[in-house]
Design brief:
- Helices cover about 55% and strands about 15% of the residues.
- By secondary structure, the protein is an alpha+beta fold.
- It has a two-stranded antiparallel ribbon with strand order 1-2. Strands 3-4 form a two-stranded antiparallel ribbon.
- Helix 1 crosses helix 4 and helix 2 packs across helix 3.
- The longest helix has 17 residues.
- The protein is extended, with a radius of gyration of 25 Å.
């Protein structure tokens, strides 16, 4: 079955961000919808076989292109998690209110990956780093640290045996 342009956009965005509600918001006119409605409609789209087939096809195409491996992603996330704002500072004097950043040419590749933005702000240069919490969260998810621990609670004694003991 052929997807509508909005369904195609939803599938593409879902593959990119992994969040059905976000993909729905960006694909459909959801500005007047409540969050619960958006969540429900996004879930309903994911229940349609032809949409999930498209999502799987898009994911497969990305894997075949091998643009990024899990190791590449983990390396980038590790760089974000390990960089400290002090790594970027060349000179700091609180008494004189001086803060100078190192030239970008002196930044390590990890520092460049961790930088979300560098711009001229109204009070001088503004440096924003990617969030360490987000990086750690993604690393934990990729490595399976967030999965619940499985506990075996099987019963080896039958109900009849329990009743016989009384």
């Amino acid at each position: 079955m052929k997807l509508t342009p909005k369904q195609t956009k939803f599938a593409t965005l879902f593959v990119e961000c992994g969040n059905a509600s976000q993909a729905y918001r960006e694909s459909y006119n959801a500005s007047n919808m409540k969050p619960n409605t958006i969540n429900r409609k996004a879930f309903e789209l994911l229940q349609k076989d032809y949409i999930t087939a498209t999502i799987k096809e898009l994911q497969s195409e990305l894997k075949e292109k091998d643009l990024l491996s899990k190791e590449d992603i983990l390396n980038d996330l590790a760089a974000i998690a390990s960089v400290n704002i002090a790594d970027y500072v060349d000179e700091f004097d609180i008494a004189k209110q001086i803060l100078k950043f190192k030239p970008v040419s002196e930044w390590t590749p990890e520092m460049k990956r961790a930088c979300a933005s560098l711009k001229n702000g109204k009070n001088g240069i503004e440096l924003t780093l990617h969030g360490i919490t987000h990086a750690y969260d993604r690393i934990c998810k990729m490595l399976g640290f967030n999965q619940a621990e499985k506990i075996d609670v099987s019963v080896t004694t039958s109900l009849a045996d329990l009743l016989k003991k009384d």
